[in-house]
Structures are given as C-alpha cells and as structure tokens.
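Researcher: Let's do a round of design. I'm pasting the structure tokens now; please hold your answer until I've finished.
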C-alpha cells in the first residue's frame, strides 16, 4: 500500500470528522496526524485501502472521544469561527442565507451527545455506509441506524427551537 497516496486521499476526511466532533482546529490537526502516524506504524497489519480507512477513522474516533472525555467544555471555539467552504452562489443574499443556515446546523450538531454526533457526522458529512460506521464505532449496524435516526430527530428539534428563538 502506498502510504503517501493513502494519506493524501484520506487526510481531509479524517480531519473534517475530528474537527466537527471537537470544534477545534488544533485538536483536529493533532488527532488526525496522530491517527495517520499510528496507521503508518502498523501498515503490515492492514490488507487493503478499505481496512486502512476504517482503521484510521477508528483510531481518530478513539483519540477524539478521549479528548472529549477529558475536556470540560466540548465547544472550544465560538461556532461563528468554524470555517465553512465558500459558497458556490454568486448572489450575496443567497450566500448570506446559506451561511446562516450552516451556522445554525453546526450549532445544533455540536449540541448532540458525542455518540449521536459521531454517527451523524460519519453518515451525513463523510457519506459512509452503515456497515462502515458500525466497523469504526464498534456498534452493531442496528444501533448505528437507530442512533442516526435519534440524532436526526434531536437535530430537527434543536433547529426548530433555534429558528423559533429567531422569530
């Protein structure tokens, strides 16, 4: 396996996942790098790219959960300071609305418990299959599906209350 190619192809996904879980750029950089470092030290145990990706996400997940358990406040950076990709829309009004919507969603996702947040992030943002999420989290596929459903329900309630508060 070509480690450099694997790193180049997967670093951003791992970083985004940890960043969304921790809301800290520095933490996301540290944890992502540590996960890839550990993977590089165990390449003889990894048989293919899918194993390597799953293994790297699992290590990043465990490091991230350790970090969250140790930190007293899970929201380390004001939500407004978490960067988002530039809007693809040239209309400033639509771009502003998109920005507000993304900020509300980020705020709502950070209010989820880490167990619900991680499965939602892996499914919604990283487009992983239930089986992949199950392998990474060590939870049965049924549990993953129910946590995603629960996370979506709570997210919907949080967003409803946030939008109600803006009226």
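Researcher: That's everything. Go ahead.
Model: Designed sequence:
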């Amino acid at each position: 396996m070509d480690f450099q190619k694997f790193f180049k192809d997967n670093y951003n996904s791992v970083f985004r996942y940890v960043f969304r879980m921790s809301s800290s750029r520095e933490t996301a950089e540290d944890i992502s790098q540590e996960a890839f470092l550990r993977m590089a030290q165990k390449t003889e145990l990894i048989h293919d790219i899918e194993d390597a990706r799953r293994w790297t996400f699992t290590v990043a997940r465990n490091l991230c959960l350790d970090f969250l358990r140790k930190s007293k406040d899970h929201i380390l950076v004001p939500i407004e300071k978490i960067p988002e990709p530039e809007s693809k829309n040239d209309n400033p009004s639509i771009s502003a609305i998109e920005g507000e919507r993304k900020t509300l969603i980020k705020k709502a996702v950070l209010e989820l418990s880490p167990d619900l947040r991680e499965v939602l992030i892996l499914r919604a943002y990283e487009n992983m299959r239930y089986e992949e999420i199950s392998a990474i989290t060590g939870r049965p596929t049924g549990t993953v599906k129910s946590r995603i459903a629960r996370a979506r329900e709570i997210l919907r309630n949080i967003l409803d209350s946030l939008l109600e508060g803006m009226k």
